[in-house]
Amino acid sequence: MFELTVISPVLLWTAIAIYAASFVAFAFDLARRSQVSADAQTVREAELVGVGGRGGAALPASGTGLVADAPRRFVMARIGTSLMVLGFLFHFAATLTRGIHAGRVPWANLYEFAMIGTLLILAVYLVVLTRIDLRYLGTFVTGLVVVLLGLSATNFYVDVTPLMDPLKSIWLVIHVFVASLGTAFFALAFALSLLQLLQSRREHRLADGAEKTGPGFLRTLPASDRLESMAYRFAIIGFILWTFTLIAGAIWAQDAWGRYWGFDVKETWTFVIWVIYAGYIHARATRGWRGNPSAWLSIVGFTAVMFNFTIVNVFFKGLHAYSGLS
Amino acid sequence: MSSSRSEINENKDAVSHDSSDPLRPSDHVDGDDSVTQPRLGVVGWLRWGWRQLTSMRTALILLLVLAIAAIPGSIFPQRMADPNGVTQWERDNPDLFPVLDALKLFDVYLSPWFSAIYLLLFTSLVGCVIPRIKHHAKALQARPPRTPARLKRLADFRAVERATTDAATDAAATIDIAQKQLKALGYRVERYDSGRTFSVSAERGYWRETGNLVFHIALVGVLITVGVGGGFAYTGQRVLVEGETFANTLLDYDSMNRGRFVGDGALTPYSMRLDSFDVTYQPFGEPGSGQAGDFSANVTVGENGQERSGAVKVNHPLDVAGDKIYLLGNGYAPTITVRNADGDVVYKNSVPFLPQDNNLTSLGVIKVTDGMPEQLGLLGFFYPTTGVLESGAFFSAYGDLTNPTLTLDVYQGDLGIDEGTPRSVYVLDTTGMTKLTGRTTDVESIELTPGETADLPNGLGTVTFEDESPEGAADASQSVKRFASLQIHHDASSVWVLVFALLALGGLMLALFVPRRRVWVKAQAQGDAVALEYAGLARGEDPTLGAAVDDLVAGHARLLDAAGITTAVEPDADAAPDEVAVPEEAAVHDAEAGAAPDSAADPEEPGPSASDTPKVD
Ligand code: HEM
């Protein structure tokens, strides 16, 4: 068993390093997007007038020099994605060895929550990548994962210890896993909502004929309402998983603590997050709240998720004392 | 994008009398735009107020207010979850406490303001849902709307021409086939033929609105079952020392909370004896050393004159007569005997000591009320595995019984229990008492190991720490009895809460994932060709509408080919929107790009305000 206690952290730190490299590659990709779109601006401006605007297209539709340029343009994104996959494999191996070492699911303390949570963010992202080109989120995803994993591995690391009695339950497997999966979807929705706000600002400036329209890479991204509808799709999947988490948590609390709901700190925050996202879904259907205001709700919602995961776990006192830190 | 498509409805004439669209609150994005002036007079204002309350915007704002209002309860300790935390907070902030307490910040979830928010929200919810139920019931019986005159103007439009020798007959036949095809795809279909134009109108996704309504109603169900169920629920606590028996009567509980409808005779008579309490510890030197686990309170339950054994464990409550019995805590209960100067036993009991840390340093109180010249109070600390700090103070190094020590300080005077005010058995109020041993006195605290007896000061008598080990025990591991703190909980409504919660989850999935859409297929005989038109219209979020229309077109062509009705001709390059031809990855961006807000507005596209939602009243 001695080896496993060493192997898992080593694998994890390797993964973090690879993710950091992937982050750099994705950052270069964004910079390159700005560059390319700046080069192409003159060409495209002429085109915009003619075609009536294809401003949001990632791949220009018809034959300008840009099409030939496209493969070169995405080299950095390709490298970033490949590194991310490589990092994911190490990360997965680290999580797996941790689980084998512990002889249980590897999500029973804060260090492990971070490990599985970020793993799921990447898994969801990589699966989605096979269907939709979201590589412009690469910097966000790798950045978030490096920060969360790095912080947890340095501050939250704990040795494998036997589970406390309340955690010995099938609900540990289900409830925590689904919560982490929901978080992964919320994270992607958050990133898209953020971009949506930037994009919408750019669109307004364009409409006003402003010179400066914000970061250049935005020009290569989908239009804001397209970003909004993608954010929404991630958010509703996250919301359903979160609803399930809430119910599963209540069932577990009934068994472990003798009541299904008691407004324990963690329960309260889970509820608050659920209500915020319910608000978000309503906002998307309410006149005057669609667009930017609803995007803010998605951003607030994910901020609450992160708050719940970090601050509430570490600093708030409650029954959910399972961070493993003392 | 698809959503903005859903707002499009240029076929106002064609479908304005259609009532199959779900009724939405007036400010819903798909909703009615008309501004209603409140009529003067009380009734008018009431109606106006009701409309405001049941509007989407109000619901949204109440939701956000609810989220914010729930937060203070996580910052301040709550009486319902952490009463000791509240006491502690009061001690730390004596000035601020009364103010915040008056604002109910320590009872947030029972406070009038929190209740007001969720009650308003649920009133709004009910007011919103009831008309929608009526409306949806009608929609479920309605036929799909008439085919719009100009399908071309819909965003998801495809046109195909097929060659034929008998255009008039084949035009009708193609629609017959489309009708069957759509029906097989789960659409509700209706034919609208006139002259040489044949069309089928189809609609699907009624489950979306059904799911939405089920979800919202189920939330009301959750609220009501929680509220009503609480009135019939009871929760009691009881500490049981090994060997003790408990009878399920109101008198035998240490504390009891019961709902307002729980009568005195509501408790089922049964008894429960704690035979033994199991616990294991992580051995020294291993990760998590000293951590206790695998708790099990082994009990014998007596019910209807029969006895059976069972175990109460964390995560595994024991079911007895519809009650659920939970293990809340555990600890040591040293057995202590006090004798007076004459050698008479004036006190003998196994006293539960409350654990103070993970290694079970425990604190307990012994109250000797009779048989002594004055009442005696003993304040005790118990260390299951005793260690000594450099200062000479004791601590417990491990939770298990390795070398237990009990220390006692003696107080003499008035215990204050005769005044009728309830006193906790775990607290010694020393105000009316004199300290006889320990710090600040000349006499050292009493220290005992199991089996030892010590003299009380001033010749008052003796105190014995009984050794409970069975005959011939080799070590101290069974020298002190343990206790289990049990919670007996009865709540028949919880299963209904769960049922409603799961209904809500199911409804939610339908409401969010079932696409609600209308599709039309129209055929016109034109010389020796049949001109086919396909169009789709989303009702609400529907990201896959475009693909669905494409599939419909392709499937229809296959069916026509198979049936030998008309023959395909090269598609007219202009008629097919570019979406059809764009490969998957690019389509994702490209399909949307055409309608990007910074593009020149499409003159064909009406604003989102147009709507075919019928008026509410
Ligand atoms: C306890 C309060 C409420 C909660 C937690 C809640 C939650 C939700 C959720 C999660 C959805 C998304 C599912 C769906 O689209 O069907 C939704 C949709 C909806 N809710 Fe509520 N709701 C609440 C109160 C209300 C109220 C008071 C109204 C009416 C004013 C309302 C009207 C609607 C409507 C019209 C939709 C459909 C939105 C769409 O078309 O996308 N809800 N609600």
Span between termini of chain A = 25 Å
Low-confidence stretches of chain B: 1-22, 573-617
Helix run count of chain A: 9
State the distance separating the first and last CA atoms of chain B: 31 Å
Question: Regarding quaternary structure, how should these chains be classified?
Answer: heterodimer
Topology diagram in text:
The complex is a heterodimer of chains A (326) and B (617).
Chain A: H1 2-51, H2 65-73, H3 75-102, H4 110-129, H5 138-156, H6 170-207, H7 224-257, H8 265-284, H9 292-315
Helix pairs in contact in A: 1-3, 1-5, 3-4, 4-5, 4-6, 6-7, 6-9, 7-8, 8-9
Chain B: H1 2-7, H2 12-15, H3 42-53, H4 56-70, H5 72-75, H6 83-92, H7 96-102, H8 112-141, E1 156-163, H9 167-184, E2 188-191, E3 197-204, H10 206-232, E4 234-241, E5 245-247, E6 255-258, E7 271-281, E8 292-303, E9 306-312, E10 318-320, E11 323-333, E12 335-340, E13 345-350, E14 354-355, E15 362-368, E16 375-383, E17 386-388, E18 394-396, E19 405-413, E20 433-435, E21 446-448, E22 453-455, E23 461-465, E24 481-490, H11 494-513, E25 517-526, E26 529-538, H12 545-563, E27 567-568, H13 584-593
The structure holds protoporphyrin IX containing FE.
Protoporphyrin IX containing FE sits between chains B (24-25, 28, 54-56, 59, 63, 121, 124-125, 128, 212, 215-216, 219, 508, 511-512, 540) and A (278, 281-282, 285).
